[in-house]
Amino acid sequence: IHAKGQAVWNEKGEPIRMGGSIEDISWRKEAEAERERIITQLMESNSELERFAYVCSHDLQEPLRMISNFSQRLEQHLGDKLDDKGRHYMKYVLDGAVQARQLISDVLNYARIDHETELLTNVETEKVVASVLRDLNARIEETKASITHDPLPPVYMQATHLRQLLQNLIGNALKFSSQAPHVHIGAERDGAMWRFYVQDDGIGIATEHVHKIFCIFQRLHSRDRYPGSGIGLALCKKVVQKYGGNIWVESVFGKGSTFFFTLSPAVDLNSKAA
Asked: Quick one: pLDDT at residue 147?
């Protein structure tokens, strides 16, 4: 119960009347306590889910590695004894093991984002882009892609996370495209943040599907047509939100997409250390 009152005084400075009110705020206290309890439960639940994903993914790597290795050995051992149907079945086994290992690797990367201990620092975005393009060189040559970028500012974050973010967005721009795609990367100031964008002229995204693409394990196409785990854009969203930014897409179906994301600019590390 919360009470408040006020005295009314006469000209001689003597109290002549007391006014006040009494308010029962116990319900508010109970609601606040319940809110705190729910928040604590959600944080504990999320932490447990992340640990579960990490342990399961890590422990599944070894048996899948064994399936892949011994399937290859079995194929070599059987040699000519393996007919066309047998080789076809063996290919399914090996492809399934590769897909499962990639899925596990992506889940591990997703689960690690909130637990990595790499120090925050100023990251040269252009150097990260150059490194990502080297890794994607085979796909760039295969698709005859043209990739350009404006001068890109440094940002303040973990370098590993910026690399994951750009690798997924540029990789998707190459994957969901026609032959000889053009991808452009740019950045513009947006208040206290930098707004980056990755623009392509690929297949685009239908309006009714835009809200799905940043959800984990959401796929808009069959794995046979466009391989992948369905985690990449969810990982991008988690990375950007970890640093207080936003990520969104503008797309025209059949004409291309532009992915935008905001990140904090580089800081004066000497001043920060002081």
From this structure: 94
Nearest to 236 by CA among 206, 198, 268: 198
pLDDT in tens, 166-182: 999 999 898 878 778 99
Write down the pLDDT at residue 71: 82
Residue % of the chain over a pLDDT of 70: 67
When the pLDDT of each residue in the chain is averaged and rounded to a whole number, the result is: 78
